[in-house]
Amino acid sequence: TPSAGLQINYLAKAAVKTEIHEGLKTEIVSINQLQGKKTLYLSYVAEAGLAYRMNSKWDLNAIPSFQYGVTSITRNNAVNTFPYSVGLSVGVTRHF
Questions:
Q1: How far is CA 36 from CA 2, 95, 96, in A?
Q2: What CA–CA distance (Å, rounded) separates 16 from 60?
Q3: Residue 71: its pLDDT value, please?
Q4: Residue 76, CB-side half-sphere exposure with 13 Å CA sphere
């Protein structure tokens, strides 16, 4: 069962981690509080639900998903940030 659409997201916390490579040296910069963070943003979401019937009473389910930000999570910054995520939900269904 494929699905796609728009989603409104609430951003409770944001952290940024950047790695800078120069030859054999690596520098890691972490920011725990993002300036100009928006609380709400829009994203595209796409899923493809799969179900395998094990017997007449039980199904095994897997739902891979992808989400990509349509609007930036930052405002008035030099760099716009668009979050994305890839996920997998797994479960079982019992038929009565």
A1: 35, 48, 51
A2: 36
A3: 92
A4: 4
Question: Which residues are within 8 A (CB) of 16 and not within 5 positions of it... i.e. 6 or more apart?
Answer: 30, 31, 34, 81
pLDDT of res. 46: 97
User: Mean pLDDT for each 10-residue chunk of the chain (96 residues)?
Assistant: 93 82 86 80 95 95 95 83 92 95
Q: Would you give the DSSP letter of residue 14?
A: -
Q: Cα separation of 11 and 38, whole Å?
A: 7
Integer Cα distance of 71 and 76 in angstroms: 13
CA distance 42 to 40: 7
Q: What is the 3-state secondary structure (H, E, C) of 34-66?
A: CCCECCEEEEEEEEECEEEECCCCEEEEEEEEE
What is the pLDDT at residue 76? 79
Instruction: Look at residues 59, 69, 93, 73 and name the one whose alpha carbon lies nearest to residue 15.
Output: 73
From residue 59, alpha-carbon distances to 3, 26, 49, 56, 70 in Å are: 19, 47, 12, 8, 34
